[in-house]
Amino acid sequence: MAEVIFSSWGREIVDNRKGQPKPLSELQIKLPAQYLEEGEVKAFIGWDGFILLDKKVDVVAMAAEYMKRVQEKYCCGKCTPGKKGTRVLQDTLERILAGHGQEEDLQTIEDLALLLENCKCTLCMTAAVPVFDTIRYFREDYLAYTRGEKTPVNGLRYTDKLTAPCMDRCPAHIDIPAYIEEIKDRRFEESLDVIRRNMPIPAVCGRVCPHPCETACRRALVDEPISIMVLKRVAADHEWMHHKQPPMKPAPARGKTICVVGGGPAGISAAYYLALDGFKVTVLDMLPEPGGTVAVGIPDYRMPRDLLRREYEIVEALGVEIKYNTKLGVDVSLKELKEQYDAVFLGVGAFRSKPMGVEGEDAGYEGFSEGGINYLRAVALGQPIETGKRVIVVGGGNTAIDCVRVALREGAEDSILIYRRTRKEMPAESYEVDDADEEGVQFEFLRNPTRLIHENGKVTGVEVVVMELGEPDESGRRRPAPVPGSEYIIPCDMVIPAIGQDPDLSFLEQDDLGIETTRWSTIVTKGGVLMTDSEGVFAAGDCEIGPMTVVAAVGQARRAALAMSRWLTEGKAYRDDADAMEDLVAELGVFDKNENTGLFGGLHREHQPKVNGIERARSYDEIELAMPESQAVTEAERCLRCYRVGMIAVG
Amino acid sequence: MVNLKIDGRDIEIAKGATILAAAEKAGINIPTLCFLKKISPTGACRICVVEIEGADKPMTACNTLAINGMVVTTQSEKLHKIRRQVMQLMLVNHPLDCPVCDAGGECDLQDSCYGLDVDTQRFEGENLNHEDISNWPLIQQIPSRCILCEKCVKVCHELVGASALAVHNPGEAAYIDTVDGKPLDCEFCGNCVAVCPTGTLNSKPFKFKARPWALRKTPTVCTFCPSHCQIDINVQNNEIYRITSDDEGTTNNGNLCIGGFFSYGYVNHAERLTQPLIDQQPVSWDQAFDRLVETIENLRSSDGPQVFAGLGSPHLSNEENYLFQKMFRVAIGSNNIDSEARFGAMRSLRATEAVLGLRGASNLLSAIGKAEAVLVFGADPTAEAPAVDWQVQNACRRNDAKLIVAGMRKVKLSKFANVSLTCKPGTELELANGISRLLYERNLLDSDYLNQYLENPDELKSHLDSIDLDAISSATGVSRPQLEEAADTLGAARTVAIIFGADVTRSARGYEKSIAISDLAILSGALRGGDAGGLFPLDEKGNIQGMLDMGVCPEYLPGYQPYAESRERFGKAWKTELPEGGLDAMGILEGIEAGNVKFLYLAATNPLSFPNANRWRKALEKVDVLVVQDILPTEVTRLATVVLPGASYAEKGGSVTSLDHRVRSLEKAISSPGEAREDWEIFAGLYGRLQKQAVSISRSEILAEVSSLSSLYGDICFVGDERNRPCFKQPYRPAPKGLKYQAPQVDEVETGLQLVSRKSIYHFGTTSTWSAGPLEVEAEGVIHVSPADAATAGVIDGGRAKLTSRQGSTSGPVKVDENLPAGLVFAPYHFAELGIQALLADGSNRIGVELTKGG
């Protein structure tokens, strides 16, 4: 059990140097005790202080090493206190370490640490924080050096990590401050280059991402969060709006082949990174056209299909072959793929609708849709499907919202959403609920369907029961309970259940190759490298996580692609330092919602123009219009560039 | 508006303004160092920190927006301490070579240290300064002096759009270099040097030549191109040391191009003409005038006035061109006067006049920057008028305009284009017609506007109905979707700017192409007026607009008054009878060949730079009397009977007219070398002697005469005797039913490998080939060949090639140019040695050629 010797993390001082060390678990700091296979975590130093888990750690040497890395590796050099101040700090610390320091050097360090409050961004500014702490709380260690009583003992291995609250919170870990800075500098192509390092489908995630990054935006602590997603769209749109060709070029061919099953966000992302890395990638997709769930699950008014196709053309231009209308388990088996290719990536998504469990739903009534995702797919592919005049959609998630809005566009006069809790508890993004509202969707909250009503096998209504909210359940939302005897019938001619999806793993029925699955019908992978129990078979995206977001699928697929590359070239799928540090800071947490930034705000975030609700409600044209680039620059100028550097000491 | 309090004073300022701007408005000084108004704020130096109530940390005034109710303090002990310490940090590893630093005396870093009492240093750090970068042409970078303010990087990227510089390396090792670390290869505009607050970026030609405080600055106008940027000539001992320009109070915002910044060397060139020559022998002015008067009088009495001809010049001022035409028409009695505009600017002028009643640009340059869509058509503004390039970037890179670049080749601005229409050489007319047809077909016309202003809607309709878009696509090689995107872009914009240039006006069918573009200007609404959009014909020569305004052509008297109709009126004013008829440049050339023209006066112009130069050479050899007035010795002065040494723009006063009709004053910064005289003095001297009366003419008298004879210059305002205040000519406004659509004549297009003679971005006419600056970047004429044509002909990059047209042949070094479409060969016309103009046919910048290896 790891024990804490000292911590200044989060500005809370825990000092057990003299007393009994306390277990790390008591500290509410999520720091792993073990780092990869290399050894125990001895200390962590970073933007919010430092944590000491071993008495033997030389705090002065660690501070000197940290400042050296900040100055030589990460400081952008673009403001005076950062560029010069961290150099003076580095050199002063090194001088002390070399036995040439004097006590007044400590004053210089403290003064500079305070002066660094005036840096342009938070990178060097926060880097001064733990160094200041070491002098304040480990002054004797410094004085031992200046008195010549101490020389450095090494033996610890340090690993560092550049992060930012938004970048950490983004499941794809896009270097958000960097791409925003490029926009601020009116370098849109360079901005897109940065985005593509972690996000191969920027035009998609610039439009439909639920942008968790914005919930970790420090600007929100000053006034309002940055429109991070929209800025990504601006960078992505700049390229096609100027008919520019993307600059990516694949590495020399490595002579190995990979089959990617599923051409959704996970599959295409894996294909992108693997192709860039020099592998020959073939993508199999059961759909007749590119995009996976983005194409057939996200309506065109949110994600125009021509732009989605362009993203796929870009990946194809890297040498990726996409075979459409090919379904795993039907047209080809997993066993065959494993034999034919050097590695297999499973990104088969989660597109099987969950049943509602109400009377009549498996009776095959006319007017009853198998599921929201099926309905959206049929519309997207132009399949013959008749939308009723009065449509009821059951569910509170994004798919349910998409269904009610598509039903309007397909000619429904009344499009009604039924949800068993209230608007507040809806898992759908609140702005999408607002969008639906503006378009004329009707909502029936605190209602749950109990029975389908039909006449001669044709749906004529749905019986619902009124619900009440009770105590919070494990998700933290108040649990709904039916009010006995409150049942009544809502007339309608179509019912679409949209209460969730599962992955379709039926292809494992023939031969599961030892691949473990969960009771939610997701694939189990291990070790943070997304490899299944079958060597060389990797899985990512909705089929591994369960139904999630595009950005989560992309992030996972990138990690899987990196691991696959290592597995194919080095014979071992493992996390490297970058992966491990990414996971480590994610666990530690980077965003502090209680931070006092000390800044003056008062600026509103910029929004992209939007077609008004009535005008757009019957059209599939994109409803959010491009943000003018000058406005994007204004928005980018609000970014606080909240970089920070962490460093771990392992021994 | 926003209300805030700074240092106890209430200030109201527009929303979106920074604290710094608010303080400036109230006259409160906040120290800055990296701040430069014309670029986006950088916030690098942190000197401008201020305290804001409610914020625990000081914030920088340069990039923090003023918010309602904000209470700001700009001076406090705390702030002073921060500023001083930051300055101390800035000086860590800054070399103490101020005594030998070019910025000494005008260094912002010195001034800031002085202003903030930074007289001690408590910090030290390892010196990681990058070594000096001395292998760039024209510019030296000394990174140890750099304070990383990024002004150079940003001016280059944001305003010039060359994006040549970048910050490299993290931390204290950070320094500024070219993006790829190779020697600088850019437009060499010098703006990075101009904005550098320290001695980091240095002009090599200026370096170590003079101390800034010893230089005398004379504000004047750069006349290398018609943008007419406002400059200061920096002089010591009658020599130009450098050219500078202020950001404040100039229409060019202190920005210059290579012409303004680096090309002044010709003025003080050792080979300047310093004495009049008769038969190549030095003579006095009196001898030269006497000889001229005698020759003119004898020839006039033996052969009559019709054997005299003269070519004026866009190098000369308005007054000089006015005197030149008046001398010819009144004192000599010949209307055989013209200029090189015949082969370019006159074509666009006659076309825009016929269709729109417009002569030159329809609006101010700043109106380009405010347009919602910009169409650059057959022009390379970067070369032809750099200030137009900057305005186009203003529009499409800062003000969200859409940019369409159309023409036979890619130009620098193509990289910013939303739509690039690359057409086959010579099909610009068809391309313009195609866009016009689509505007009409796709209902993108403003019918209210057309009803009000268009005289002949039926003609428009019948012409547009007759256009076959498939034929247009196949003729131009531009696809239908591309054409549609261009039309939709123009149609969606409320304000449109159309710019067209040499690839249209100097080519065969230049007049017809200009007609088609004028029609497109009507249809796209470019002429709606206001402060955004307009039609902008470009011609690269400095005072071409002023020269034409002054009537230096046989068909117009000053102010575009038709010669035949206004002959009597002017004759009355000038107390003489003006001759009938008159030859244009081609007529003069043919006249010399036929022996009908025996006297040719070249006033600061060199016909060997005209198309079909060999034909001109023969004519110059043949003509009985050749008078050449110029500043530098050329092949033409060597052929001359009489050579009259004139003055450069830096040595004279006078007014010039920019392409957007601003009339500005040249100021004399230095005196001419030797006996050389201001050109207007030469004309006045000769004119007086021919008239047998002492002529004392002041510049203001000339302008007053222009003003009285033509309403065009009716609003010219005078300040004192010899100066006019910068002002505008009468602005263009189309009259109701004043636009007259014309169906342009379509002709056969020449196919096969085409040579296009062009202006380089580094050179200006032939003058700049006398300046060391541009020669360091482009020393000789290089033939640019596309990779495909190079492969076919077997020529290689850096090798030599021979070009043969039906007019002649030449050979020169080759550059294989990725930006060139197959089928096009480019060569600059500036260099006598390459002599590309000899390969061209009369009046066209393009001709079919054969490309072969070697030569």
Report on this structure.
- The complex is a heterodimer of chains A (651) and B (855).
- Chain A is an alpha/beta fold and 651 residues long.
- Chain A folds into three domains: 3-166 and 646-650, Up-down Bundle (de novo design (two linked rop proteins)), CATH 1.20.1440.230; 257-350 and 511-574, FAD/NAD(P)-binding domain (3-Layer(bba) Sandwich); 353-502, FAD/NAD(P)-binding domain (3-Layer(bba) Sandwich).
- In chain A, 35% of the residues lie in helices and 17% in strands.
- Chain A is built from 22 helices and 24 strands.
- In chain A, the strands form six sheets. In chain A, strands 2, 3, 5, 6, 7, 8 and 24 form a seven-stranded antiparallel β-sheet that branches.
- In chain A, strand 15 (414-419), helix 17 (430-439) and strand 16 form a beta-alpha-beta unit.
- Chain A is globular and about 95 Å long.
- Chain A starts with a strand and ends with a strand.
- Chain B is of the alpha/beta class and 855 residues long.
- Chain B folds into five domains: 2-90, Roll (Ubiquitin-like (UB roll)); 125-265, Alpha-Beta Plaits; 278-343 and 544-728, Rossmann fold, CATH 3.40.50.740; 361-533, Dimethylsulfoxide Reductase, domain 2, CATH 3.40.228.10; 754-853, Barwin-like endoglucanases.
- Chain B is globular and about 90 Å long.
- The model of chain B has no long low-confidence stretch (mean pLDDT 95).
- At the A-B interface, helix 1, helix 2, helix 3 and helix 22 of A face strand 4, helix 2 and helix 4 of B.
